[in-house]
Specification:
The chain has about 650 residues and is α/β, with parallel strands linked by helices. Among the domains are: about 380-465, Rossmann fold (3-Layer(aba) Sandwich); about 480-650, Glycogen Phosphorylase B (Rossmann fold, 3-Layer(aba) Sandwich). The protein is about 55% helix and about 5% strand. The strands form two sheets. Strands 7-6-5-8-9-10 form a six-stranded parallel β-sheet, sandwiched between helices. Strands 3-2-1-4 form a four-stranded parallel β-sheet. Helix 3 (about 50-60) runs parallel beside helix 5 (about 85-95), helix 14 packs antiparallel against helix 15 (about 260-270) and helix 15 (about 260-270) packs antiparallel against helix 16 (about 275-285). The longest helix has 27 residues, at about 1-30.
């Protein structure tokens, strides 16, 4: 009797298995309705059959019905058989789609417990833990997977990802090793190789990243993601043409790839190809109106193109999408200043430090001056930005010295003697870089009540055009060195002595966009027998020699004077000149700070013009504003005419 019952049970199981096999075949062929009919036929006769319930859940999900229905079927299957490993696994995937991560991890864990060789469930557990911020727990799961099966590249990828951001050298080495093992395990898997390449970038393993990107693109030449990521790496490492080619290829592969247009435009802007950069940014915005980087890059390109009013519109849109972006707020501040919205611009000028664009950053919590009365206080003014900025903002120090009980000025060591001579009532010292916020001051060492970067002094005391002095209040150059400079200038013979600078001391495509060539200034030499005197920073010897040998233009260099490092000597020479001409840079800022007359040119609508088209900080300087692509010959001729007119009383 028992044998007969067992036989009937076996026959029933075989019959169910045959029905389910047929139903699964239909399901794999896309005949979902027919498969469902067979599953329901089994459930009608055997309502709690766990295998059928599980397959009905999979079918419900595959049919596009609600996940809730699919989840209910599989929960019913597990109620009937709590150790049904595949049902646990299927339920885990469905729960992830519903955002029920903790419960999903539980069911994947049950599947892994019941199926010791189940790699997929463990990979899902590790992925979910990592994405949930529990990377160390995920790391252990990845290591368990490798102990079970060390041939799966995904586990090595996971270890590489988690440890790629570690600050521990041993863990970084493990990450590096794991990524190379991932590639070795799956050398023809485009995703694995591309994943490793992106992590090598994070780890600053540039050569390995390049090799991996090359391999990923070879494996899948049509991957726009690989071309895009590789282009970013090439751009960041100065391989401009390769980056352009890769960005362009990414766009060819995916013509609606807004991020590729945006990044390409940003790179073109950095290389002074501003019209193309603006076009790329606009195309990115057309494809993806909410891509904040595209609006930001458009603003930056317009800013560099001397079009701040249009840049303001771009930054305004970007800031509606990302309101608290420090870098964009800093650029927004500069555009406000450039368009004459002076108070609004100064009010958010502090974002320059927050964005890392204004340097050096020296935090002093609770000690930053915000306009308080200084009559019985000591304030320390700190240097910021470059030499030209220091000289420009120093024109505000007179105001603070008149207001405060005492002023301490920390500046570039090359300016200490010059500033101390100018403001003998102040304490002038070389900048230390120390800060209470960085805990580099010891107890009792703070010898001031307030402190402020020089730009804050300007923001507080130059809030309206009427606050700028009408006459120069010049720095005081060293008298003895002025005598030496005068003697040398006199030795050159008669004629006005005109200081010349024609480019920035630093070479970048954007800076060079506004540079001139020494030979452009030959017309100045024709003014009353003028002698051109070198004030150019940045090792101009070769340019001066070429101008003489090829064009017969003489630019005199004061013997033994290093115009970059010996600023005391440079100030003395500049103070003895009759005139200065050239590009707006640290040399012409020094001329203005010394009260020397001059005619300079600078980018149109620059923030430091404050919407005026002139440089109000230095009354002795006359300013020409130029746009990218300006007429060099026409500009120099206009400046020469001005110089001739301004020097005419001498004759």
């Amino acid at each position: 009797m028992a044998n007969s019952a067992m036989k009937r049970k076996d026959d029933t199981s075989e019959k169910i298995d045959r029905i389910l096999d047929g139903a699964m075949t239909l399901q794999t062929q896309g005949m979902l309705k027919e498969a469902g009919n067979l599953y329901r036929k089994v459930l009608k006769k055997f309502p709690g059959h766990p295998g059928t319930l599980r397959l009905m859940g999979i079918l419900a999900h595959q049919s596009g019905r609600s996940n809730a229905e699919a989840i209910k079927y599989i929960r019913d299957a597990l109620d009937a058989d709590p150790d049904f490993a595949h049902a646990h696994k299927n339920l885990g995937f469905l729960l992830v789609k519903e955002g029920l991560i903790d419960e999903a991890i539980f069911h994947f864990s049950e599947a892994a417990r019941l199926l010791p060789d189940d790699i997929e469930s463990r990979l899902e557990i590790a992925r979910l833990l990592d994405e949930g911020g529990e990377s160390r727990d995920a790391l252990e799961v990845y290591r368990e997977i490798i102990a079970i099966n060390d041939t799966d590249a995904r586990a090595f990828r996971g270890i590489g990802k988690i440890l790629s951001v570690s600050e521990d050298e041993d863990e970084l080495a493990e990450s590096f090793d794991a990524l190379h093992k991932a590639i070795a395990k799956a050398p023809k898997d485009h995703i694995t190789v591309l994943h490793a390449a992106t992590l090598f970038v994070i780890m600053k393993k540039t050569d390995d990243a390049i090799a991996a990107f090359e391999s990923a693109i070879k494996l899948n030449p049509n991957s726009h993601e690989a071309h895009f990521a590789f282009a970013n790496l090439m751009r960041d490492n100065g391989h401009t043409q390769r980056a352009v080619d890769l960005f362009s290829r990414a766009i060819e592969l995916s013509p609606k790839y807004a991020a590729a247009y945006s990044n390409l435009g940003n790179m073109l802007a950095d290389n002074a190809m501003l019209d193309d950069a603006i076009a790329c940014a606009n195309q990115a915005i057309a494809l993806s109106p909410d891509l904040v980087e595209a609006h930001n890059n458009l603003g930056s390109a317009l800013q560099n193109a001397c079009r701040p009013a249009e840049a303001l519109d771009a930054y305004t849109k970007a800031l509606t999408l990302r309101p608290n972006d420090d870098a964009m707020l800093w650029n927004f501040a500069l555009c406000l200043l450039a368009t004459g919205q002076i108070e609004n611009g100064w009010d958010i000028y502090g974002y320059g430090f927050a964005s890392g664009q204004r340097k050096p950053y020296r935090p002093f919590p609770g000690l930053i001056w915000q306009g308080e009365d200084l009559s019985d206080k000591t304030i320390m003014i700190t240097r910021e930005q470059g030499l030209g900025d220091d000289l420009r903002f120093s024109t505000c120090f007179h105001d603070i010295i008149a207001e405060a009980k005492h002023v301490i000025i920390e500046t570039d060591k090359r300016f200490v003697d010059l500033y101390q001579r100018t403001w003998p009532q102040a304490t002038v010292r070389a900048e230390t870089g120390r800060s209470t916020g960085l805990r580099t001051y010891k107890d009792g060492e703070v010898d001031f009540d307030y402190t402020a970067p020089a730009g804050i002094i300007a923001a507080m005391r130059r809030r309206a055009l009427t606050s700028f002095p009408r006459e120069s209040r010049p720095l005081v150059a060293n008298p003895a060195r002025r005598e030496t400079a005068r003697a040398w200038l006199d030795s050159l013979g008669s004629g006005p002595k005109i200081g010349l600078t024609w480019r920035s001391g630093l070479h970048t495509p954007l800076r060079d966009m506004l540079a001139t060539d020494p030979i452009d200034w030959a017309a100045i030499q024709d003014i009353d027998g003028a002698k051109l005197i070198n004030l150019q920073f940045g090792f101009p010897d070769a340019e001066i020699r070429e101008a003489a040998e090829k064009h017969g233009l003489t630019i005199h260099q004061m013997p033994d004077l290093d115009t970059h490092n010996d600023l005391e000597g440079t100030a003395a020479l500049t103070a003895e000149l009759d005139f200065v001409v050239g590009l707006w840079n640290a040399a012409t800022e020094m001329a203005g700070a010394l009260g020397v007359k001059g005619v300079i040119y600078m980018p149109a609508h620059h923030p430091m013009q404050l919407g005026l088209g002139i440089l109000p900080w230095h009354p002795s300087l006359r300013t020409y504003s130029v746009m990218p692509g300006f007429d060099h010959k026409g500009l120099v001729q206009s400046i020469a005419n001005d110089v001739r007119a301004l020097l005419s009383p001498r004759s």
